[in-house]
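Repro case for the chain-ordering regression, as requested:
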Amino acid sequence: MRRADRTSLVAGVVITFAGLVFLLDRLEAIDVRFGYGLPLLIATVGAILLVAGLDGPRDHD
Amino acid sequence: MARMKELRRDPERGVLAGVAAGLAGRAGIDPLIVRVGFIAASFAGGFGFALYLLGWALMPGGDGGRAPVERIAGKRETWLVVAGMMLLALAALLLLREWGIWFSDAIVWPVILAAAGGALIWRQSTASDEPAADRPASTRATPRTAAVSLPRDVMGRAFVGAALVVGGALVFLWLNDALRPARDVLLAVVVVVVALTLILAPWWLRLVRGLTAERTERIRSQERAEVAAHLHDSVLQTLALMQKRVDDPREVAALARRQERELRAWLNGRRAVAGDETVALALEAAAAEVEEAHGVPVEVVAVGDAPLDERALALVAAAREALVNAAKFAPESPVALYAEVDPERIEVFVRDRGPGFDPAAVPDDRRGVRESIVGRMERHGGRAVVHTAPGAGTEVELVMKR
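-- result from build under test --
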């Protein structure tokens, strides 16, 4: 069975989470101000980079 | 129909990263037009600058390399972890700031910048103590410069660290209004520097390119001379020996096998003879080899010893060539090799009591003394002097600083 790519998995999860937060903001269920939105975006990119760095080398490298 | 040229950066014709030159090459127009377009667009809210950065990130290099974005996406490197942690820390700081758990922008941001820069410099200062063998060959300093210079990548990171520290200090001064008195002077200095850069940049670029081309040509020429010297000492000498021993097929075959082994080892970057790890041992091995090949006794006296580094290897090769010359041109005379190794330098003398010769009368196409001895020693920072005259024997003096 094909092994899941951890980077893609984490990237998918954190981007989906960020997307949900912004969707709830649009639906006015929550209020995401710039002061919270910017750290959320930065943390999303940071988490993806961190996992990519910690993950093993790709097969085709 | 002619195939359209692939869109690539062209660093060789470029001023910065070759984005404008690459675009101009693809469109078949003068790069200057694209550059002016980028500069003009940069004044429209920095659009041109952003576009240039985007082009640099997405366009592959001119030498067939991949685009920076492609390279980053395909790597798992330490810097990814560092960048990820930095972004997470930044997000946490922004959240703390939003919640009011914060000293002041005028203190925290400069301190963070200076701390990041300081950490980078400290990291590089300890990294430079690591053994050179752990680093790639291209980043290793030569023995002569090791004490005073650092590899280029270490220097680059230290420079970034220093820039961060200085940037942190400037941000601190600016946020605390300490730069106000110097603002007019700074503005004038910046304007003059920018104007001078614009005026002098073409000459500076031409100078840098000229120096790079000259350095490349010099390295190429030295490499050619090294290859020629090696081929002269090995293949040509063996062919000459084979012609002399043509009536003994077994010895000719043995000579050919030995030369083949040596040549293969050299082509593969290995040393032909194992075990001669010091100067004295290598000189003795060279003397034994010449004795065996030419049937002339060689007396070796070595005082002191040293590890066999690249410069010492060149000295041994030059001494071997001097021994071969002595064996060839003074076959009836005993050959003596005297070596003295001290902490400052290595001296080798090869003497024979043969017929001697007039160095000025040696034809230009003979490379033995000129390239394999004198040229080789000079290329490696040493010197060689041949003391000889017709009827007075020959002494080759080789000196290499350690």
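Ordering looks correct now. The first helix of chain A runs from residue 6 to 26.
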